Amino acid sequence: MDFYYLDLxxxxxxxxxxxxxxxxxxxxxxxxxxxxxxxxxxxVAQTGTGKTAAYLLPILSMLDDGGFPKDKINCVxxxxxxxxxxxxxxxxxGFAYYMPEVSSVAIYGGNDGNRYDKEYQxxxxxxxxIIATPGRFISHMTMGNVDLxxxxxxxxxxxxxxxxxxxxxxxxxxxxxxxxxxxxxxxSATMPDKIEQLANTLLKDPVTIKLAVSKPAERIHQMAYVCxxxxxxxxxxxxxxxxxxxxxIVFSSSKLxxxxxxxxxxxxxxxxxxxxxxxxxxxxxxVMYQFKSGQIDVxxxxxxxxxxxxxxxxxxxxxxDVPHDAEDYVHRIGRTARADxxxxxxxxxxxxxxxDFMDIEKFLExxxxxxxxxxxxxxxxxxxxxxxxxxxxxxxxGQRGRNNRHGKQGRQGxxxxxxxxxxxxxxxxxxxxxxxxxxxx
Length: 441
Fold this sequence. Notes:
alpha/beta, 7-stranded parallel β-sheet
């Protein structure tokens, strides 16, 4: 569907026109009309489906049309991480390009005192849209800096990730201060029981829009080593010795493993940095800057990087551990093969993770290529699931995994909408710092 068939206002459509956003993604086509109707919405959609635009566009359109109090907070968007909050803020700047009266501020931790003072002033003066991480926002609420009595829109982005990070009580605490008439919009990449419980608590007669998790891009060459835990570093040494390892992300399941792996790679003279939740905001910004600018070749990270970070030229993703579920696997390897590039994904599967990896293969409806272990590392485990008692159970068709050799287009005519705007002289509106977001916002 073309965006022009949706009931967005002219300023929102003009911004989309400038960014060559022509057609909606499925989540945008289904969510935008329901949000414009004032319905509470529960959207289940993975990162990269365009969900940021699915809630920002209708909210900004309604705010720009007027009828909301000035100098008050009209919309609160909660984000699990600083990085995603910054990304939402950037998308906000692009979509609100022709809405100079709509104000916004991003609020997240890890900043110096000057930043906190600016946040305090923005909250006290009122901003139409607040984009915040739960911890920092609760801090402002505790200090008496926040008045939520006029909020009309409450958005939870990546709600499952927020719950995984322990923000459940913070979210409920914030929600208690919202007026009964507030419209609530929740997006989650997965739908576990805890998300259903949160939705039942916060949402009123919601419309549920569920998009199936898409399969990884066909341009990703997926491979796996079946190995023992003590063989993993031998595989890593082999990869870094035999490949040109640049623009690589290595994922591990815990920050402790990330730290250990980072130091192991440093001893191998690999140009790398680690990214995990123990870093300060300034440190995380510096790591991402160094990686994006090519100053370092390898980023070793927890799943904090798997969602919400746009880096288009990743050549290889290595899963040092098998992700907890198929959706996390899709998010991780989805960092490569972006913007019509090819990419590779390699997963190291230890014996006790074989059943989980088989579940991923079942979800993908494909058998992922198993690579023989490098010479000198010994035999690989048998590729069959392990029972709870630790014994292996041969599955039908299973075979011993020995170290052997088998093993966007521009808008086209029709609508006739060209500028003739109040900013027709080509100058950008006052106080608007604009970096148009990507189509996947």
